Every structure is written in structure tokens, then in C-alpha cells.
């Protein structure tokens, strides 16, 4: 029974597809961490970037908008992975709202996914965790 359950979990993770994925990279002092960056054209909302659960000792997820004078925002969701992948997630704008220039914030509570949104001009967003 344990083998069947393990196979089901592996199949579930192997078949889940998310447009945005975090790349593992070493984060000094925390073991493995994650990094994701994407550049968006005017008026584009990125696909969801699913955030894995925090590991013991990890305190937050940091998101940075690098706008170079353009405007954009970050959206987050606490909807289930199934709703995120189906497009039915409920999204909320981060507390900083739409920002101009380079701006960072840390999410100290759990979220299931993040996405960037360009309001005017090309913007880049980065996620470090």
C-alpha cells in the first residue's frame, strides 16, 4: 500500500504543470532556496508561480518589482493548487499596491502562488525564498 501511495504522489507532482517555476539555488545560511525572475510587457499579467511550503527556519518570501520608472504590482493567492492551475484562484494585490520604481516586500504568511502584473511599461519581478 505504501508503494502505491508513493507512486501516486510522484505522478501527481510529475503531472502538475505550472507556467512559472522556482529555480533552486543556494541561499547563504538557509540551505537550499529558490529564485524566480520574469520580465513583463505593458498590460501583461504573468502566469502563476507556485510557492512551495516554507521549510523549517525559513521566515518569508521576498518579492521585488524592478520597474525603472514604469508601474506594476504583485498579486498573491491562498487558493488551492488545483484552483491555481485551473485558473480559478482568487488573487489579491500586495499591500504596496501599484508601484513605480524598484520596490521590495516580504510575505511573512503562507501563500500558494504569486504573479506579477505590468500596468505601464516593461517591468521585471523577482521572487527569492
Distance between the termini: 35 Å
Say how many strands there are: 10
β-strand amount: 35-45%
The arrangement of helices and strands along the chain is HEEEEEHEEEEE
Briefly, what CATH class?
Mainly Beta
Q: Which structural class matches the secondary elements?
A: alpha+beta
Number of domains: 1
Largest sheet: 5 strands, antiparallel
Which sequence of strands runs across the widest sheet?
1-2-10-4-8
Unreliable stretches: 1-21
- Share of residues in helices: 10-25%
User: What is the CATH fold-level name?
Assistant: Jelly Rolls
Report the mean per-residue pLDDT as an integer: 77
Radius of gyration: 16 Å
> What's the CATH architecture?
Sandwich
Observed structural traits:
129 residues; alpha+beta; Jelly Rolls; 5-stranded antiparallel sheet; 10 strands; globular; disordered N terminus
